[in-house]
Each structure stands twice: as C-alpha cells, then as structure tokens.
Design brief:
alpha+beta; SH3 type barrels
C-alpha cells in the first residue's frame, strides 16, 4: 500500500519545525513544501521571549508534549524559511 499523496513530498503529514530568518518558529503538520512556500496545517508559532519562554524551551515542550494548534493553516514564504526539521528529531 502506497501513499495517496505522493505529490506532496516526503514531509507530508509529518509534524515539523519551521525556523524563519526573522526569528519566529512554526510547529505544525506539513502539508506541502514547494519552491514558493511551506504549507502547514494545525500549526502554532512562537517568538523568543513570548510568554516568558525562549524558543528552545518552547520547542522542548512541543517535542515532549506536542503543540497547541492555534493556526488552522499557514503559508510561510520560502524566502522567509531558514530551516525545516521533523519535531521528533528534537525529542531524540
């Protein structure tokens, strides 16, 4: 049995961390990565110091307990993206 969305890319359906060049990070379920943008579903975002937490602390909590999906879907322009990695990689 294969994937039904083979055109969506290797990260489709995986919870990822998108770090941006401007500073905020996004955590969400990856829908598609294109040359133009990264599309996330059920996402959340965090900036350094928000709610008294560093980005590192926020990501450690998200890796251990999951994230709170406050954003239904978001398009992050490719030019703003510094890196993308699986959230599960932070837990190991």
């Amino acid at each position: 049995m294969g994937t039904f969305h083979s055109d969506k890319g290797a990260l489709h359906g995986i919870t990822v961390v998108v770090r941006t060049k401007a500073g905020p990070v996004y955590v969400g379920r990856c829908d598609t990565v294109t040359p133009h943008a990264v599309y996330l579903l059920q996402a959340d975002t965090h900036e350094e110091g928000k709610d008294g937490k560093s980005i590192a602390d926020y990501l450690a909590g998200a890796a251990q307990w999951g994230h709170w999906p406050r954003i239904d879907h978001i398009e992050i322009p490719a030019g703003d993206v510094a890196s993308i990695q699986r959230l599960a990689e932070l837990a190991s």
